[in-house]
Amino acid sequence: MARIEVKSEITGTVWQLKAKPGDKVESGDTLIVIESMIMEIPVITEDGGTVKEILVKEKDPVAEGQVVAIVEE
Amino acid sequence: MSWLPEIEELHRRRALAEDCGGPEAVAKHHAQGKLTVRERIAALIDPGSFREVGKLAGKASYDAEGRLTAFEPAPYVMGIARIDGRPVAIGGEDYTIRAGTGFGSDRRKGGQGGFIEDLAYEYRMPLVNLIDGTGGTVNTARRKGYTVVPGYGQDGMERSVDLLGIVPVVSAVMGTTAGGPSMRAILSHWSIMVKGSGQIFAAGPPVVERAFGQRLHKDELGGTRVAVDTAGTIDNVAESEQDCFEQIRRFLSYMPQNVWELPPVVDSGDPVDRCEDALASIVPRSGRQAYNMKKLIGMIVDRGSFFEIQPTFGRAVITGFARMNGKVVGIVASNPMVGGIVDYKAARKQGHFTELCDMFNIPIILFADVPGLMVGVESESDAILREGVRARFIGFQVSVPVFSVLIRKCYGVAGGGFTDRGGLNFKIAWPSAEWGSLPVEGGVKAAYRREIESAPDPAAREKELEAELKRLASPFRTAEAFAVEDIIDPRETRPYLCQFIDALQGRLRSQLGPKFKSGVRP
Which residues in chain B have Cβ-Cβ distances shorter than 8 Å to A63? Predict the structure, then answer.
């Protein structure tokens, strides 16, 4: 099974977790919402599969390019 | 007596050139999933339109009687052809012959200057470079008996630079590319890389390993993920060689033949008065929420005409070409899916694209939803201010008409980049638009800090001030003052813009030719 790293495209803080480990997700689904400069920026998985890990919790600071979730195909 | 023996000899030599580096080298090349340069040219151009130049160039061996015994063609194939019926100059390295390195000819055929670039320059026609060469080799010293200073003799890059102000130049990175060919790839108006087989770097993995002891696969060092998505060194990715050729044809369809002409008008059959109802509700009422700007663009421009440039780099800004009632326009739009917040990559991308449109007399439509430049120590360390101001500087210097369509946010230095202060400064807004030096949220705290802190209930006072300022932020108040030229029903955007794009064609025709710009970019 392929292990896919899902990254935040932007620096900000975790606003909401939309998925949890074990959830089945499809390409284009929002896993996490990052708040950056008063905007809600979705972190979207490009690949479908099962959420293996969510690596952040609400209010955590996140850097651009940081891996925030793992999805297994 | 006729010249038939010599004519036969000519045809024999032409046939030898068709063999590229010989069956074994060609089979090896094919096994890597790559076409030969001759196959590539044939796949890209209008069928049967290739007129080759310099096919007899190469290294020949002769016997004592002066008869040809062996022939190795020059590792570069070039000539003229047609793409969508228009002439282009086209050339590429033949990787099957010594990895497409130079061969010591009297005159360079192409690749870094050379005949094909001179031809594109003299005839004022687009140039397409199909790059698959590894550049210089230390073997040159053995061949010449001495080493050379970079940029010696036939270097030719000065011609490559000249071309950038005269005719469209396209580069396709179709193999592992380093040194001089890398430079050639970047000296273009638009570049594309074939995923998997294309890489580009200043120097390849062996040189990196020697320098730092770091062992990297060539794809990790200069594949699409680094060169296109992360660095923006190359603009677009092709999934295959065929996809690469289709994208090159597409890019050229938006380009004029040279700066003295306008791009071709292509009737899309899409009615000018098409008004999409979905535009009335595409923008969420909450200013915090994202929506799909590419979908919005698609509903306004001629159906199916949007071609995105640099789709994976600097994603806060979307850039691309489209048509409005058949006429080519450049689109620069905020991307709310990544907040529309302009980081240094997005600023660089916006500046470059603006300059590209201006060079080829393509009017620009700006779709703004920009909260500002990216803030924070990371962004400041990336020189966001310098990059942001440079993009503004380029914007101030454009000579093509620019429209601002203010969709939602338009704030600060980055917001100013979505207006045309150097020209007509024509701004049309949707009812969802808001603007200012900075957003009310956050801005209130900065401007009224003392008043808020000294209030009996600071949080309540902050909210009161926010509410008061938000009432003043209605776009209708700005329209009353004619500080925005119009507020329009979002559904009218297409007919509104099409009418102005039609009307400005005379302006474009009045300013054809090379553009010389003064000043030092910040």
Answer: 378
